Amino acid sequence: MSSENEKNLDEIQMPEETINNFSSITTKNSRGSLHCITIVGQIEGHVILPPQNKTTKYEHVMPQLAAIEESDEIDGLLILLNTMGGDVEAGLAIAELIAGMKTPTVSLVLGGGHSIGVPLAVSAMRSFIAPTASMTIHPVRLNGVVIGVPQTFTYFEKIQERIIDFVTANSNIGAQKFRDLMLKTGQLVSDVGTVIYGDEAVSLGLIDQIGGLSDAIECLHQMIQERRNTQNDAIHPNSL
Predict the structure, then answer these.
(1) Which residue among 53, 64, 155, 167 is least crowded, i.e. fewest CB within 10 A of its CB?
(2) Domains of the chain by start residue, with CATH
(3) In contact, 26 and 35? CB cutoff 8 Å
(4) What secondary structure letter does DSSP report for 27?
(5) How far is it, in rounded angstroms, from Cα 189 to Cα 223?
(6) What is the DSSP letter of 115?
(7) What's the confidence (pLDDT) of residue 126?
(8) Catalytic residues
(9) Residue % of the chain over a pLDDT of 70
(10) 84 vs 76: CA distance, rounded Å
(11) Cβ distance 171 to 126 under 8 Å?
(12) Strand, helix or coil at 166?
């Protein structure tokens, strides 16, 4: 009896442990099983950030995405975003993984999806943004000392083009329009770029639609059902 109680206690504590360690959780009901990943604070890459910083570690997120894609127990992925940006390479790596998944994916921008958070927001099959959420689009920047030679600026330009190519390939905004927003002057203090909010992000074609948590979850369940229907049609092509 004691061992059974301990087992039940472990099962109860497991979701809380998953949330604390990896900011993710899996839920299941009659409509399907959803896994939720949160991308918050600053995206941490190869350099460990100070302990007082709220971070999302790419080495935690990437294996989770691979496991979700391979799992028979998870039907869809919900990505909740409230990030200031961070490491460009790490953010793009996560975004590329999400964009390459066959598992239905939906993203929801809450609070902010800034800088490298923009590619992360559009990487899902369907993207939502809360009406009050904001997104900052600006050129690639680097803190610290850089070598002031033409090759450095060429490297920055190539990274920016990678971001532009990814965003425009995974949303409905044009490359020139996104580039114009990235290089706009007069809006940000001591910087170039643009801040856009919910409705504007949708009107520009960057995000698919305005919505909240229930909208994103409902959309994800619909995508799951459509995928099941497609799979059933492939298995039973002549069924009525």
Answers:
(1) 53
(2) 33-41+52-235 (3.90.226.10)
(3) yes
(4) E
(5) 41
(6) T
(7) 98
(8) 115, 138
(9) 82
(10) 25
(11) no
(12) helix
